[in-house]
Amino acid sequence: MAERGAEGGGVDPSQVVRHFLFALAAGGAGAAASIALSLAVDLAARLSGRFPWLLLALPALGAASVLLYRALKLPAHLATDTLVDRLRRNDRVPPALAPGILAGTFLTVLGGGSVGKEAAALQMGASLGALVGRPFKLAPVRRGAPAIPQGYAAATGMAACFGALFFAPLGSTMFVLELARFDRAVARHVPTLLLASFAAFGIARLTGIGDVIPRIAVPAFSWPLVVQCVLVGLACGAAGTVFGTGLRLARRVVRRRVGRPLVAAVAGGLLFAGIVLAFGWQGFEGTGMPLLRGALAGHAGGADFAVKAGLTVLALGFGLKGGEIMPMFTVGALLGCALGGLTGAAAPFSAALGLAAFFGAASRCPLAALLMGAEIFGLAAAPYLALAVAVAYAGSRDVGVFGHGTASELAR
Amino acid sequence: MAERGAEGGGVDPSQVVRHFLFALAAGGAGAAASIALSLAVDLAARLSGRFPWLLLALPALGAASVLLYRALKLPAHLATDTLVDRLRRNDRVPPALAPGILAGTFLTVLGGGSVGKEAAALQMGASLGALVGRPFKLAPVRRGAPAIPQGYAAATGMAACFGALFFAPLGSTMFVLELARFDRAVARHVPTLLLASFAAFGIARLTGIGDVIPRIAVPAFSWPLVVQCVLVGLACGAAGTVFGTGLRLARRVVRRRVGRPLVAAVAGGLLFAGIVLAFGWQGFEGTGMPLLRGALAGHAGGADFAVKAGLTVLALGFGLKGGEIMPMFTVGALLGCALGGLTGAAAPFSAALGLAAFFGAASRCPLAALLMGAEIFGLAAAPYLALAVAVAYAGSRDVGVFGHGTASELAR
Known about the structure:
The structure is a homodimer.
Chain A: H1 2-6, H2 13-50, H3 58-71, H4 80-89, H5 97-110, H6 118-133, H7 151-166, H8 169-179, H9 184-187, H10 190-207, H11 223-258, H12 261-279, H13 289-296, H14 304-317, H15 325-338, H16 347-363, H17 366-377, H18 382-394, H19 406-411
């Protein structure tokens, strides 16, 4: 809170109270959104597992989600990357996005599409944050300071909802800051972001509903373990570059060549169902949580990560609704697990390293990857995670799933 | 007829009459099959053009054809290549194949799948020929000669049905001889094959129902035209190698990796529909007759041949029912047409060269390609066709759609 009163101009106590209450409200909304999303997507995943033929309905379900977006007057291509662009440009986030992405993700996962609910949580959080922020008539806390930008309320909602879903309030706040590239308008409100995120986290903890990633044992220090961190980091850096490039390329090619989103969603659904059926890849459907749990228990085939990554690029590239973050976690963990045996390191720990390193490289948000990893796997894992993430980030090209990272912006 | 009485043993007059009548019966049956096939597939193509959404039903239609084969107790993988293998090994051809492939091709073309009816005509002809041959109790014309092999009646039916469909009785007889690799058991019956083929051709001519490929103008001799023949031959040799290898590989991979034919047909239908929809390739659906006419009128995009070839490999590789010959003609004509401008040769004539050259290279039946080409485009075109086919055959690897060619068998 130091910087608020640091420079002259005087603090407006009414605005301090407003910001405080807004943070609590955004936290509550974020937690509610996270819980609704978790329940809905888990139901979809269970139905998809029970009735495998739902895969054949994926083209129709994809078409339904595009039509829903049209009915809600949402831009057809509004995915996480375009939302992040809006955040950076301080554009408005439409309130209808929250129900839209919730239903869209439900439909995609119901048909077995390889998408996650984490990026959907970001989108819901942004949409709800912007909505919840309106009645508070937020203004700068310091009198005479420049007006509060549009993006602030959305960013607060994102931090809250993501923090609740992952039980990782610190990483989630850092993630939003990195996505906003430490824009001063967002960065000066870190206290509000943290408050909202911790409030949402607290509510989610009470209910226990969210994405519970299993803890793994952190091995004692050894030099082979350090080598393993570097190896996993290098592999995840390369794979993250390919994934980020592939997803951006797929989205661009589909938007240009296919054009109409309805046709793209149906075509994507047909292709996805055809490939899954042809190769018997039913196990790679959905968010990937079972695969992630498997990897963190030490089970992963050598090429599993590539299959999951390819299917995710296909599903998201063709505009099926859903998020990219949980698939990224899964891909990273599968890759890390597959590399487990190289130096004799424990495969589960190697999977945890892969999760953080791949996410950091592909999203260009290394600090968030480190903090989330530490919050999920415990502080004892932090030094190893830091090494793996740093190697992955440094060893990858700056083609992020959500655009360039902060570092390259600063270098300009 | 010289060889029949050449060596001693005496001729059985009753068998001469039987063979003669069988040839006429096979010709009638072949013509009837060709007409039924043409009417059915043309109807399917018209429906597919009128109702574009039928593309989305391709997975279901593919599944239906697999289930139909199961109900008819036909082997799931019985395609033209396996049928030709049977012919070569003198195995039995099941009578249920005729209705099976008729209905299967109808269903695939109805859903827009890229398959032809020519190979279906071969299969129907073989099945009907074998059936029609039974009551004639055919035995060797020469007393004491080795027994008539199973494959003979089937081969006669193939020549008849194919000759009727294409109005090309000479090429069709040569095609069957080349497919049988001039096996003596078949080759010594050339008179019967020709009689059946011409009888079927005559009936088809009267009705006018079959595949009418438009004639094109044959240009006057010029050296650039000779260069064009060599160029088209080289290109078709290379493309034919890729196509033949691709189709054999696709079939092998799908049979091994996917296994269950029902799953493969559904997956293939999904993939086909997805790709066509994604890239807007609706014009490449079906047998390709409209594309072929376009190419022979001088219209073809530079990469059209590759698209048609790829879609055909996909459809047939995944076990959708139908034939490979008309797609081969189309691919060759599109390639030839695209190469038309290189030496200033007329694009339609270049398309005709491509048709024959690509078919000769991909099927490993160059003499049939030449004869068919001459029958379709006129005798004046024969010298140029011969050059293009010879270059294509010599310049391609011996990986035929229906297995190795005769030449490599003789070389063993």
